[in-house]
Design goal:
The chain has about 300 residues and is an alpha+beta fold. It has a domain of about 45 residues. The protein contains nine helices and seven strands; from the N terminus they run ααβαββαββαβααβαα. The strands form two sheets. It has a five-stranded mixed β-sheet with strand order 4-5-7-3-6. Strands 1-2 form a two-stranded antiparallel ribbon. Helix 2 packs antiparallel against helix 6. It is elongated and about 110 Å long.
């Protein structure tokens, strides 16, 4: 083992750095989420570690100065949960069911307003069933203008039958990403120092491989962080529009409403009449098949089954 370390000094340094990085992240993960409280490590007892390359560098042939000392990233401070409202990062989603006089006209007015305040449409759909017109619009609006937008949408409706607003607090997730990014950037800087000091091709390739791995992690975390920030700054709103209150997705407070029951009964009657009319049309269209078949059956039955029985 000692001989292997002497012959692979740079590799040993790299393994120590990676091992410390993994250990440091594991300790922070426990502290952030309270996992394995019985195994918590006192961070004040963890001191920055250094690897002395004064004696090993010349023998390894790396061309590193004898007094060079490679520093490891210090343990990161624990991020406490943020208590103030201004510092929380919350992703909000809202949905509304609106009874309107004209689905298309109201939908166009809503989209025009959303565009004017810096929002954008995610998707929209309109259809005109036999009972009533119906439309669904999904959009994103700036969170700082959410209250204004909701008031505007309500003013475009004859009646608001349902409205919900939900929020998801992602502060802990965001804080953890920031802490991991800081640690990764410090570790990357240490590897870059080693790369500047390395002269052997094999050593340079090994360090570059570690740098690529760390950079991929950094890019992934940056993407996650940016997505959280964007989703928090733009609230997603889904609006259901219809000219018929019964077509909207909501649960009424008063379960028994005679007017609604009457509408449902009339609608059920019309649906049954439509069903019978459709079946009658199918029967008429297929008469070119079943009428000749019926005639053949009648002729065959009279010829073969209605013969008089000869008595001896």
């Amino acid at each position: 083992m000692v001989n292997w370390v002497k012959n692979n000094k740079l590799t040993t340094v790299l393994l120590l750095i990676v091992g410390f990085f993994v250990f440091n992240y594991f300790i922070r993960f426990q502290e952030l989420y309270g996992i394995g409280s019985s195994m918590m490590v006192n961070k004040s007892a963890v001191e920055p570690m250094y690897f002395d390359m004064a004696e090993s560098a010349p023998a390894a042939g790396m061309g590193v100065a004898a007094d060079t000392r490679i520093g490891f990233p210090e343990p990161e401070p624990t991020y406490d949960s943020v208590s103030t409202e201004e510092q929380r990062l919350v992703i909000q989603n809202s949905s509304m069911s609106l009874l309107v006089s004209d689905v298309r006209e109201t939908g166009d007015a809503i989209l025009s307003y959303v565009d004017s305040i810096g929002g954008f449409m995610v998707n929209s759909s309109y259809n005109r069933p036999e009972e009533s017109a119906f439309g669904t619009i999904t959009m994103r609006v700036p969170t700082d203008r959410l209250s204004e937008a909701l008031d505007t949408f309500r003013s475009n409706a004859v009646k608001v039958t349902n409205e919900t607003l939900q929020g998801t607090d992602v502060t802990e997730q965001y804080t953890d990403i920031e802490a991991r990014l800081e640690t990764l950037n410090k570790t990357k800087a240490k590897f870059e120092q080693i790369l500047d000091q390395a002269t052997e091709i094999q050593d340079i390739l090994q360090v570059n491989q570690q740098l690529i791995y760390i950079q991929n992690q950094i890019d992934s975390l940056i993407g996650q962080r940016d997505a959280l920030e964007k989703n928090a700054s733009l609230t997603k709103i889904t609006i259901y529009l219809s000219t018929d209150e019964l077509s909207l997705p909501y649960s009424p407070d008063n379960k028994f409403r005679p007017g609604v029951v009457f509408k449902l009964a009339v609608r059920g009657l019309l649906t049954s009449l439509v069903w019978f009319a459709e079946k009658a049309i199918w029967i008429v269209v297929y008469s070119v098949i079943w009428i000749p078949a019926l005639l053949v059956f009648v002729v065959v039955k009279k010829k073969f089954f209605n013969r008089p029985i000869n008595k001896q």
